[in-house]
From TrEMBL:
Transmembrane segments: none
Taxonomic lineage from the root: Eukaryota, Fungi, Dikarya, Ascomycota, Saccharomycotina
Catalytic residues identified in the record: 137 (proton acceptor)
Protein name (Swiss-Prot/TrEMBL): NAD-dependent histone deacetylase sir2
Molecular function GO labels: DNA binding; histone H4K16 deacetylase activity, NAD-dependent; metal ion binding; NAD+ binding
GO cellular component: nucleus
Domain of life from the UniProt record: Eukaryota
Protein family: Belongs to the sirtuin family. Class I subfamily.
Residues forming coiled coils: none
Gene coding for it: SIR2_1
Cell compartment(s), UniProt: Nucleus
Predominant location: nucleus
Length: 319
């Protein structure tokens, strides 16, 4: 009910850039909800734009291109994800002007939290303090074995990802090799393994059903069918009533529950969208449409502030 009321009874009358600039100057607890659009100027494609990642993976012939991030499919056939994972592997040690804008708000003591849907972890290169960040969909910073939950730093599987190989857990690789010898599907789809004749218990059958992902390491990015990190819910509960300005940047707001944040913030709190394309299914007090790096630069200037970003001139893609 609160969600519905919050979305129906928006009570802010706030509709131009000057009001936004004033609010930004006064605000002390800003929530920034960011998405793939804050990294596109670095050449990292977003998902849903016409030149985005989903259009690049159509050749896989999946019913829905989002299925490359479907956890059930990953368990059955991890090689599908690993055949394209190199396309989304983030570059190292770069960040966009928009990341510098976030850092500036944090340095000014105005940032309550940056809820990022991004998995590229570029916020860390911009030195945005970890306590100010919520990686709503996890990130490539670490990886976990789907079988024994062995945890490794993400960079340990980057080489496998670049070589389009399955990264295998050091704890499980012997058992995996044994299972692979036992279960050896023939090209015509039949198998030399006969579960009935071997009288397996249900745990073993489950294990063998998921044999292709046995001992495979998966980056700790949240797939469809997996729960969001608990930190997302904990921080949101803490932040909802403290927030005095919500700014959504570079996101189509199509993925729940993150997209629900706009309905959970109290009605009196102004909400602003900074995005290349309009977001029609949400009700903003102000939508600034264009490239987020440029808009953030313009707004910062109008506030009488400055943020440093060394690579402004090198940026081309996404513009
Ligand atoms: P999306 O659905 O692809 O939407 C991106 C939005 O950004 C679109 O509405 C674009 O109009 C907008 N956009 C693109 N470039 C710019 C720009 N330069 N300035 C302003 N706006 C721009 O992606 P969402 O983030 O909404 O969807 C959530 C998914 C995307 C999350 O689960 C992420 O993990 C996932 N994702 C992350 C990355 C990354 O980490 N860099 C890249 C691609 C997808």
């Amino acid at each position: 009910i609160n969600k519905v009321l919050a979305s129906r009874l928006r009570i802010v009358s706030f509709c131009d850039v000057n009001h936004f600039v004033k609010k930004l100057q006064e605000a002390k607890n800003i929530i920034l909800l960011t998405g793939a659009g804050v990294s596109t100027s670095l050449g990292i494609p977003d998902f849903r734009s016409s030149e985005g990642f989903y259009s690049k993976v159509k050749y896989l012939g999946l019913n829905d291109p989002q299925d490359v991030f479907n956890f059930d499919l990953f368990k059955r056939e991890p090689s599908i994800f690993y055949s394209i994972a190199n396309m989304i592997l983030p570059p190292e040690d770069v960040y966009s002007p928009l990341h510098s804008f976030i850092k500036m708000l944090s340095d000014k003591g105005k940032l309550l939290r940056n809820y990022t849907q991004n998995i590229d972890n570029l916020e860390s290169y911009a030195h945005i303090p970890p306590e100010k960040l919520v990686h709503c969909h996890g990130s490539f910073a670490s990886a976990t074995c789907v079988t024994c939950k062995w945890h490794v730093p993400g960079y340990k599987i980057f080489k496998n990802i670049r070589n389009v190989e399955l990264p295998v857990c050091p704890n499980c690789f012997k058992e995996r090799a044994k299972l692979m010898r036992l279960y050896n599907p023939y090209v015509d789809g039949t198998s030399e393994f006969d579960a009935n004749s071997k009288q397996l218990n249900s745990n073993e059958i489950e294990r063998i059903a998921n044999i292709k992902s046995y001992g495979v390491l998966k980056p700790d990015i949240t797939f469809f069918g997996e729960p969001l990190p608990e930190r997302f819910f904990d921080c949101l509960t803490e932040d909802m009533n403290k927030c005095d300005l919500l700014i959504c940047i570079g996101t189509s707001l199509k993925v729940a529950p993150v997209s629900d944040i706009v309905n959970m913030i109290p009605a009196k709190v102004p909400q602003v969208l900074i995005n290349r394309d309009p977001v029609r299914h949400a009700d903003f007090d102000l939508s600034l449409l264009g490239f987020c790096d440029d808009i953030a630069g313009m707004v910062t200037k109008q506030c009488g502030w400055k943020f440093n970003h060394n690579d402004w001139n090198k940026l081309s893609s996404g513009k």
